[in-house]
């Protein structure tokens, strides 16, 4: 499936479990899976059979990729230079090269021999015809075959092999030896030979024997999907049973089911898109895993948060109420702002947002409602637009329209005017308001603060933060001295990876606490607050002023390392991008009501050819069913999720 995802626009992938078909293809042991490449392009007559090549290596993603790449390479290449200097795709893929040495007098016969060898070694080695007469270097007169290993620095071998089978066995014995050596290396590194080098896949593999409480969720099929989501409020997980991230998130999803057992009216269900692809296509599911919430009479709501238990639980719990909540009296508004109205939800949202408007501000109310719908499941929002709204605006000293932000942990309420503010701006205001002024950085929230694109001023602490240092930094924040930075702190006991970060900055590691400024987004410089100075307002401000003036030296520059494939032939992303550029991508469908979804089911069912002809690359595009106003906000949420 992963190979089909990459190469689906170039080749037709076919899966069969029919024994009769397997027996008709080859005489190999049909108890095991086999992959054949059928060379059908040269075949013009349907009666004529396609030549086929069997992949003899184990069916792993890397082996399939290597196999397909060799099928794309030229069957035979003519060269006229030193074999030591020749490089082809085969060497990049770790396969040897076989040179059939030829001369002008025997060229035609040598070429036929080379083509025959090339077909026999297809997928195992690259075969080249080496023209001895045109060479500037001398090939030993007796040699008729040159063998070049894939390992860098290995000398080429000049051989005398009078039989094609000797050439084949030479290559196959080399490949066999190499596989044995790789297996031994794997055994030395990890006794579990099947463990993936991908961390997510490795986790899934290690937990493969863990008993999952699947009975806490309802498995949906093509027959039961519509009736289930229309009959009750439902959360649906769309996943692929063959995909590692899906299976890892399935465990988190079931953890949520355990926490909600007996406490929620929301039905938790799941659809395996590997089994029910039509269901997933009709629901515009274009990536895995994907979570949607279905409520009667409402459009489905897509989950775009972190793929973890706590974030998904927060999304579900906050969706118990409408967003925004319609507040009908000043007393109810005060209860809302104090946290009493939704006291059981404060553990999931420490900030409540109330938009206050006069009844005539129709456009402003619509924009706020749109923003509230977009932020549904992430923050509690409410709207008040009664005749006596001035009571609230006067009490909190603001003009209408405005936002009232109740920070329940601090017990304070802030006001933000909304003059001529559009929906996307309201989303940004609320999103920024959810950020803490001096947060504790964790693995989960780091992407949110990196999104601000500011240098990080980090206080590393081996435990809880010293209140004296906290007071110093909060004071400078109030005085606006740190507006160009993101001040934060990191508890090494809560986030042990912080110790590895410090070791990358310092050698040896100085005593804690440590104050560090990291300019991640431009230059990568790391500056350390002098360890011989105490952290006071005056010392910290003076140090920051020296930094700004360029009078402080950095202790380290973080390398701008790109995440590149180990070899050009392994650049899967560029392959998919190339495929995308050759095919038009459909526009994202607009969000539909439940009734519209059901009405369209029949139309989509009748025209399955449309679904099948859709380029595979569209599966990589997330069809956001939001207003175009929110494109920038969506990018931020998506970037946070990816990080």
Describe this structure in words.
Strands 3-5-4-6-7 form a five-stranded mixed sheet. A five-stranded mixed sheet has the order 8-10-9-11-12, with helices on both faces. Helix 7 crosses helix 9. It starts with a helix and ends with a helix. Strand 9 (234-239), helix 9 and strand 10 form a beta-alpha-beta unit. The protein has 643 residues and is an alpha/beta fold. The longest helix is centred in the first third of the chain and has 26 residues, at 164-189.
Write the layout of secondary structure elements.
Elements: H1 2-7, H2 19-25, E1 35-39, E2 51-55, H3 61-72, E3 77-79, H4 89-92, E4 97-102, H5 107-120, E5 126-131, E6 145-148, E7 157-159, H6 164-189, H7 199-206, E8 218-219, H8 225-231, E9 234-239, H9 244-260, E10 267-272, H10 277-282, E11 290-294, E12 301-302, H11 309-318, E13 325-326, H12 330-338, E14 351-356, H13 362-374, E15 380-384, H14 390-395, E16 402-407, E17 412-417, H15 423-433, H16 446-450, E18 456-461, H17 467-478, E19 486-491, H18 497-505, E20 514-518, E21 525-528, H19 537-549, E22 556-557, H20 572-581, H21 594-606, H22 608-613, H23 631-642
Parallel strand pairs: 3-5, 4-5, 8-10, 9-10, 13-15, 14-15, 18-19
Antiparallel strand pairs: 1-2, 4-6, 6-7, 9-11, 11-12, 14-16, 16-17, 18-20, 20-21, 21-22
